[in-house]
What does this fold into?
Amino acid sequence: MSTNVSAINPLAMAGDAVPTKMWGIDSRFIAPILITLILLVGQLSFGILESYPQTLTAIGVCIVAEIILSYAVSGKFPHLASAYISGISAGILIRSPEFWPFALCAAVAICSKYVLRLEGRHLWNPTNFAVSFMLFAAPFSVASLSIQWGNNIYAMMVIWLLGSVIIYRLKRFHITFTYVAAFIAFALIRSLWTGHSFLAEVAPITGPMYQLFIFFMITDPKTTVRHSKAAQIIVVLAIAGVEAILRLMENVHAPYYALFIVGPIANLIDIYWLSRKRTVTEAAA
It folds into this structure.
């Protein structure tokens, strides 16, 4: 959620924007409020958190790290919506009996926002970068959220509603829709390739981790390409394609790693393309 959760970040989406109002509330607080409601629905219905203290640890580390790094880099006190979303995303997506993975994941997410940048833009989605790092670096201590929602369609509808409100505001429905359609198409291909049932291949997208991934992580305005909607759709198709390949290789963390691989490549190409376009425009002027 991550990200940037800044993430969702996965999820962070409004940390540096000029304040606007939505329902009479500062728009930068809308995403934190809705992601908190999603957490509560998921926790009360299915117990998606490892524990409340571990999630609070992730949130606390994100907020402290954001304040320290913001002061160190710009000398300003940051708006903490982005850090809060990064923390709550890490608390939801990381599974471990220990406390240190939550703290480390949170710290890596915030640090990546200030380090992994080019021309003022994030190359990686901070939360996705941090979660991918933890899953790769500490596989014996860390797992990712993978609990299924079960048969409670009403809880799922609440998640979809809240997620839709955010991506509607961000004008990112085309990204989520494209990813879902591509996942279903690749699930059919995987089913034909492996002989597994189609329902078994498509089932993961009904899980809580995927709801956060499709509504927040891949739609993060700070880490999606800016050239055009068509470019965003192409990138999402590439993410879904890489994920399908990783799933065929039986990688259970396929969505995180697919975004980790495709995201920065797409952003580098986007930065180069926009920079070249500006140069041509300035030369013509």
User: Anything to note?
Assistant: DSSP finds eleven helices and six strands in the chain. Confidence is low (pLDDT under 50) at residues 1-18. Strands lie at 21-22, 25-26, 94-95, 117-118, 121-122, 143-144.
